[in-house]
Amino acid sequence: MIEVQNKKRSSRKRPQSFIRELFEWIKIILVAGIAAFLLNNFVIANSTIPTGSMENTIMAGSRVFGSRLVYRFGEVKRNDIAIFLYGYKCRNDGQTYRETDRGTCPLCGREDKRNQPIYYVKRVIGMPGDHIEIKKTGEVDASYITKLNVRSASGKIPVGTVYVNGEEIKENYLPEPMIVDGNQFPEIDVTVPDNYYFMMGDNRNNSADARFWGENQFVKREKMLAKVYICYWPLNRFGMVK
């Protein structure tokens, strides 16, 4: 008789034990989810580089971590490699468009907040108030340029230099000379407005950056999301990003 009663008590304990364990797992999953949300939205920015616009600093297909805290509590600095909000892809008509003050898709009027945000990774070249010039300064043999659709009857390609406030900047991170032909690759002469930045890719001959954004060619301070610090994938490219 006693044996039967013990069996009944044991069978009653099992469901209670299972429920407690399940509840503990739910708590762990919730805490982990909340922690991941907070990290991803307020501390760390995790971004994939889809194109070669930042080569050879960051190769196409690489994944990087950036710090949101740097720009939340600190300042953007020249030569920072930054993740920023470039624009949106409209979920209605599929158009990709530059972020503007209008807050809507220019084609159909759908609100930005209802569309897919697009983030870019570029280098900070111009700070608020800077005078930025890109000028033709010489020619190089066409063999130095890997961009396939560039042709030259003379075998020479016009290249140029970036000047900030009248001074040439040294850009040792460029993989090849920057084409400046006045047509496909324009000369630039602009002053960066207050609270804005002038952004360019390191792979200048294959980068859709501020040179080509038209009248909306600067990035607002509030759209600068994170400073990139680490490339973590692929593993053979693991390291600090400079």
Written account of the structure:
Pfam families: Peptidase_S26. Keywords: Hydrolase, Membrane, Protease, Transmembrane, Transmembrane helix. With 242 residues, the protein is of the alpha+beta class. The chain is 20% helix and 33% strand. It has helices spanning 2-43, 68-73; strands at 44-48, 63-67, 81-89, 96-98, 116-126, 131-141, 156-164, 167-168, 178-179, 188-191, 196-200, 219-220, 224-233, 239-240. It starts with a helix and ends with a strand.
Summarize the helices and strands and which ones pair or pack.
Layout: H1 2-43, E1 44-48, E2 63-67, H2 68-73, E3 81-89, E4 96-98, E5 116-126, E6 131-141, E7 156-164, E8 167-168, E9 178-179, E10 188-191, E11 196-200, E12 219-220, E13 224-233, E14 239-240
Antiparallel strand pairs: 1-2, 2-13, 3-4, 3-5, 3-13, 5-11, 6-7, 6-10, 7-8, 7-9, 11-12, 13-14
Observed structural traits:
alpha+beta; 2 domains; 2 helices; Umud Fragment, subunit A; five-stranded antiparallel β-sheet; nine-stranded antiparallel β-sheet; 242 residues; globular; single chain
Describe the structure concisely for a colleague.
20% of the residues lie in helices and 33% in strands. It has 2 helices and 14 strands; from the N terminus they run H-E-E-H-E-E-E-E-E-E-E-E-E-E-E-E.
